[in-house]
Specification:
The structure holds 2 protein chains of 2 kinds.
Chain A: H1 2-8, H2 11-24, H3 26-29, E1 42-43, E2 49-50, H4 52-70, E3 79-83, H5 87-99, E4 111-117, H6 126-143, E5 147-151, H7 177-193, H8 200-214, H9 216-220, H10 224-242, H11 247-269, E6 273-275, H12 280-292, H13 299-303, E7 306-307, E8 314-316, H14 324-333, H15 354-368, H16 372-381
Parallel strand pairs in A: 3-4, 3-6, 4-5, 6-8
Antiparallel strand pairs in A: 1-2, 7-8
Chain B: E1 15-16, E2 23-24, H1 26-43, E3 52-56, H2 61-77, E4 82-89, H3 96-110, E5 114-118, H4 119-123, H5 127-134, H6 139-157, E6 162-164, H7 169-182, H8 185-189, E7 205-206, H9 214-224, H10 241-254, H11 258-268, E8 281-282, E9 289-290, H12 296-305, H13 317-324, H14 331-336, H15 354-357, H16 359-364
Helix pairs in contact in B: 1-9, 2-9, 7-10, 7-11
Classes of the chains: A alpha/beta, B alpha/beta.
Chain lengths: 421, 375
């Protein structure tokens, strides 16, 4: 994902800064502010020095709290994690593993991963792509979750239903969150005491095997015909992106296709929730970018915690309260493996796209005014998903590509109405 | 061979429109620009026949083009408006005096009546004097707050039904960006300056040029040979708007439609309905529209008169509470409110009139200032 690549590069300097930070604030660095015992290893905000163990607890708790507070994931629900290999999504994977301890009733043990590969349009050669994929697969296999690899080339085979809003599955968990949790616990107790059911681990391994066999690229590589088809697809994809003139439009195209691909994977594999690893910093950039692209009406949908525009598949963003810096520290301290992949805007000029201009602006302002990212993020929190002038009963007309409610009805908006008097 | 005009197909093109990318000749551009402004006025139903419209005239390009266009379109399409020029003299030497001269020249040519209101006459402080007390920063906060009221008062004085200002698409886009960066929900809801027809002040306002790109306004003024004044205000370089402005220019370079897109986004933002919004009330001292017990101008003036110019800027609620209780401030606290170090503390605390006695007033005061950003 574009997201993660940009952040990836910041890991170096951050880890270098760590010692300097602590040395320059001896007063707050003497003891961890949480346990008051261990010596701290990093300062999150000014004055908040954490030791390694407390930082980990703080970090994991934040993830769990995020899911708990929003009551996003129902027990036993199948969750798909969208991974790019970058810091944020890799960190998200680790968090899911942390909270997936089997004794917890709200654990996410039905999680699985979709890893997308878009090297073709980001200027990676075939050899480099193979290398990246290999690294990814190592990480995926080590996670022991079932996984799917999605190549951007597959967008040419997507069904047209991907452009449709599917109504929410009525047989799904309609009752309250609390009831669902209780029901799940009851069911678990029955399984423990009753008939010999397959242990969780075995089911997972079975699932993993199944999904491994599902991956089309795996055995396909041996087949020359399939390889030729893949090459044609790649060629098609490169031509598609080549026909788009500006980098801004390319970024938007890639984002749309990527979302469609993830949605397709979720639908075909029967997942009702997809987790995306966008951090607070990334979301601040996205808010301002989309604002500049005229997507003011759908900002809340694009950046909110839960995004139900597709109807049957809900996208959630559990990493949205972590800053890029926190994530970088976490990955560094706890050895979270990440994969570096170039993005569309890697090595592009500073003013090449709206995305890039905004990103540079936000990072620059953040260096001067450390509250920039959080202020923008909180502004985004105050936005509403439903347009102000929409009638609640009517189903809104939706955009074909992003499935957000159309905002192009140039009727009389409230500001255009004649002035009183 | 130079490109030919894409509208008439005969004359050589004189420009490529930033907004649409079309190559147009001079005559076609002027016609298109005038027609678009007319459409904006008609579609937005900005004016009614017989209304008196005060044009906020600074002498700069936007207001000069606006005054020219309104006069032209009024004649051409018969809006039936009585047009006036209204200028505010902030008292900034080397800037406003020269721009007011441009307004006067325009007045002579156009024959529109002109009225000038000055900060000195309205508030007893000129911007230059304020800046001497305040230092280089935050001047735009004072100037902006004061001008908003000054325009309203001038318009009331002249019996105007409406104020038309020369805000262009770039200004609107900057404001959207700025309010978003500051998290100013109140202003975002009010349409981020996208021309609330109801207006915030006493006199309704409109922005007939709010869909016009700054570049096109400059080109229009250039092709029409309009005489305007173009120098940046001497206090502007320190303003926070500069960040938004620089960003907008880069965005426009990357994708010209970004300016219009930002305006559209600003109009279409929908805020959560459960947010606590500042309620519209009136200032207890001057009766002007305010979301707080005192309007911002009165708070700023109070600060100036007490020798604590930063009283109304940033978060000094605790200090304001202290003042309200009649407690003396320490030297350090006075310094934080911008008092000069060498200045002797005032002999006695001047009571705040009826405000000094009211317990609640200052306590409730919560000015929505910039979030640690200089505005």
């Amino acid at each position: 994902m574009v997201v993660c690549v940009a952040l990836c590069m910041t890991v170096g300097p951050y880890s270098g800064n760590r010692l300097a930070l602590i040395v320059s604030f001896p007063s707050c660095a003497e003891k961890c502010m949480k346990c008051k015992e261990a010596s701290p290893v990093l300062v999150i905000r000014v004055g908040d020095a954490f030791c390694k163990a407390c930082f980990r607890e703080y970090f994991v708790h934040k993830f769990r709290a995020m899911l708990g507070k929003n009551r996003a994931i129902y027990p036993g629900e199948k969750v798909l994690l969208a991974l790019s290999g970058g810091p944020a999504s890799s960190s998200m994977l680790r968090q899911v593993q942390e909270v997936s301890a089997p004794q917890r009733s709200n654990s996410l043990h039905l999680a699985s991963l979709v890893c997308y590969s878009e090297g073709a349009v980001c200027g990676q050669s075939l050899a480099e792509r193979g290398d990246t994929l290999l690294q990814m697969e190592t990480i995926l296999q080590a996670s022991r979750f079932p996984y799917h690899l999605a190549h951007l080339e597959e967008v040419f085979d997507l069904p047209s239903s991907i452009l449709q809003h599917a109504p929410h599955n009525p047989t799904g968990p309609k009752n309250s969150y609390k009831e669902a949790v209780e029901g799940f616990i009851r069911q678990q107790r029955r399984e423990e005491g009753g008939s010999p059911s397959l242990p969780e681990r075995q089911i997972q391994e079975k699932l993993a095997e199944v999904s491994l066999r599902d991956v089309p690229g795996m055995e396909g590589l041996a087949d020359p015909e399939a390889r030729l088809l893949a090459a044609v697809r790649t060629e098609q994809l490169i031509r598609l992106f080549g026909s788009v003139k500006t980098l801004t439009a390319k970024e938007e195209l890639l984002q749309t296709l990527r979302n469609h691909l993830i949605l397709h994977t979720a639908r075909t594999q029967g997942y009702s929730k997809v987790m995306m690893g966008e951090s607070c910093t990334r979301l601040a950039v996205k808010l301002l970018t989309n604002l500049s692209l005229g997507r003011g009406a759908s900002l809340a949908m694009d950046t909110g915690f839960s995004d139900d525009r597709h109807g049957d598949v809900v996208v959630v963003r559990p990493m949205r309260e972590y800053s890029a810096k926190e994530i970088a520290f976490y990955n560094h301290l706890f050895g979270v493996p990440t994969v570096f992949t170039p993005a569309l805007d890697t090595k592009a000029l500073e003013k090449a796209s709206i995305h890039r201009v905004i990103e540079r602006f936000v990072y620059g302002l953040q260096a001067e005014f450390p509250s920039t990212v959080s202020t923008v993020y909180r502004t985004g929190e105050k936005l509403s998903v439903t347009p102000g002038d929409a009638s609640p009963a009517a189903e809104p007309e939706r955009c074909l590509l992003c499935l957000c409610a159309l905002d192009t009805n140039v009727g009389k908006c409230k500001r255009c109405l004649p002035a009183p008097g | 061979m130079p490109a030919t005009c894409s509208a008439c197909g005969t004359s050589p093109a004189a420009l490529r429109r930033p907004k649409t990318g079309h190559a147009l000749c001079r005559a076609c551009f002027l016609a298109a620009f005038e027609e678009e402004t007319h459409q904006a006025i008609v579609a937005g139903r900005l004016f009614r026949p017989g209304e008196t419209v005060a044009i906020g005239a600074s002498g700069g390009k936007d207001s000069t083009v606006l005054a020219h266009l309104l006069q032209l379109l009024d004649q051409r399409h018969g809006y039936g408006l009585r047009l006036l020029l209204l200028s505010v003299d902030e008292g900034i030497a080397g800037y406003r005096d020269a721009s007011l001269a441009a307004v006067r020249r325009h007045q002579h040519r156009s024959g529109l009546p002109l009225h000038v209101v000055s900060y000195r006459q309205l508030y007893g402080w000129s911007m230059d004097r304020i800046a001497r007390h305040l230092g280089p920063r935050n001047n735009c906060t004072f100037c902006g707050v004061f001008r908003r009221q000054a325009l309203d008062r001038g318009a009331l004085l002249m019996g105007a039904d409406k104020i038309a200002t020369g805000h262009n698409a770039d200004d609107v886009a900057e404001t959207v960006l700025m309010n978003f960066l500051r998290g100013d929900v109140g202003r975002l809801r009010r349409g981020a300056g996208a021309g609330p027809a109801g207006g915030e002040g006493a006199v309704p306002r409109c922005k007939p040029l709010r869909h016009a790109y700054e570049k096109e306004i400059v080109l229009y003024a250039y092709f029409q040979g309009l005489d305007y004044f173009s120098t940046e205000c001497v206090y502007a370089p320190q303003a926070y708007r500069g960040y938004a402005r620089a960003l907008l220019k880069e965005l426009e370079a990357a994708r010209p439609s970004a300016v219009a897109d930002l305006g559209h986004s600003g109009e279409r933002l929908s805020l959560r309905s459960d947010l606590r919004m500042p309620a519209r009330g009136t200032c207890q001292r001057c009766g002007y529209v305010a979301s707080q017990p005192l309007c911002k101008a009165c708070v700023l003036l109070e600060g100036l008169d007490r020798g604590l110019p930063k009283l109304g800027i940033g978060k000094h609620r605790r200090l304001r509470d202290k003042l309200q209780d009649g407690q003396p401030l320490t030297q350090e606290e006075r310094r934080r409110l911008g008092a000069l170090a060498e200045e002797e503390p005032p002999e006695e605390q001047v009571p705040l009139g009826e405000l000094g006695r009211d317990e609640e007033l200052w306590g409730k005061q919560e000015l929505r200032g910039p979030r640690d950003l200089d505005f």
